[in-house]
Each structure stands twice: as C-alpha cells, then as structure tokens.
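Consider the tokenized backbone below.
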C-alpha cells in the first residue's frame, strides 16, 4: 500500500499539495467532499450493476437474446468465469483477489484525495470492482469462484456488463487525467 501511495504521490494534507481552502472552510472538509463524491459514484455504479444483473438473471437468463439495435447490439445473458473476453476461466480466485486488492487500495488512497475528477474516476473503478466482486463471491459455482453475469453483446465484440463499463470508463478517465498532468492530490504538472 505504501508503494501505491508513493507512486500516486498524494500528500498527507491539502496544504502540502498547494491547495488553498475555499473561503470560509478548512482544507479537511474539502477533501471529505471528494471522498463523499468517490463513494457516491461508487454506490451509484454498484447499484446500477447489481440491479441490472438481478433483472438479467430473472428475466433474460435461459431465454433468447433481445435485439436492442438490430443485430448490432443485443442483450444476451451469459456467465463468465474468467476475465475480459472470457480469458482465464481457471483463475477465478485470482481475479477475486485482484478485485479485492483494488478495492482496498482505492479505499486507502481516498483519504488523500483532493481532486474531483479523480474522485469520479476512482468511484467508477470502485463501483465496477465491487459489482464484479459481488458476483465472484455470491454466484455459483461457489464462494470466490462465482461466475460474473454479462449481458451487453455488441456485434463482433465480447459480452460485458455495467461493472465492466464503469471500470473501463474510470480507467479511460484516469489516463486522460494523467495525460493532462492532474494528480489525485489536485496538483497539476505541466510536463
């Protein structure tokens, strides 16, 4: 964890990051608002994923796919024991441990977060990781070996779910923020 914090470069206080408190407030509540945003985004992404999977299992599993946009996009329920594109079906336990580690790292780094865009990006990652981890823990064939429910099937592409979408969108946002030089502590690098 210390290595992740060193790499991400977040200071212990917003003053160390050069952040000025807004008028009439101390620096700590500003950081707390970012944490609240992170967890609100995570809760929203997680809830959307959970509800969609419950609906898919109840209404779509063991039924014919539903065409959403001609043959370009359909809802097709499958169970995925592996990672993206179905790779690594034999490593379900490892994917479970990776998702749990991501959740722990994000939760630990949250206390040093002073950037709203980073809060949103990490919230998406956290919500998506929680969504797929829930499947890995609670779905058959057993604890830590559960298969993830995937259902969004674009033509010629892998079947995925809303948790996967949140993870990808969060990852893309992190890459964009990094290219722009914005750090999680709110500092900007002009390299």
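A designed sequence for it:
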């Amino acid at each position: 964890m210390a290595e992740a914090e060193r790499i991400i470069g977040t200071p212990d206080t917003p003053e160390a990051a050069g952040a000025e408190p807004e008028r009439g407030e101390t620096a700590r509540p500003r950081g707390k608002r970012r944490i609240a945003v992170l967890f609100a985004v995570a809760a929203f992404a997680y809830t959307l994923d959970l509800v969609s999977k419950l609906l898919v299992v109840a209404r779509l599993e063991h039924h014919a796919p539903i065409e959403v946009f001609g043959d370009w996009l359909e809802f097709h329920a499958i169970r995925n024991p592996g990672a993206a594109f179905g790779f690594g079906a034999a490593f379900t336990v490892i994917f479970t441990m990776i998702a749990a580690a991501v959740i722990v790292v994000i939760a630990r780094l949250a206390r040093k977060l002073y950037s709203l865009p980073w809060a949103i990006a990490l919230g998406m990652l956290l919500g998506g990781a929680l969504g797929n981890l829930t499947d890995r823990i609670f779905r058959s064939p057993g604890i830590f070996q559960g298969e993830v429910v995937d259902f969004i099937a674009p033509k010629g592409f892998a079947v995925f779910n809303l948790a996967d979408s949140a993870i990808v969108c969060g990852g893309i946002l992190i890459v964009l923020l990094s290219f722009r030089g914005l750090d999680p502590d709110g500092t900007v690098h002009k390299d």
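The chain is about 55% helix and 10% strand.
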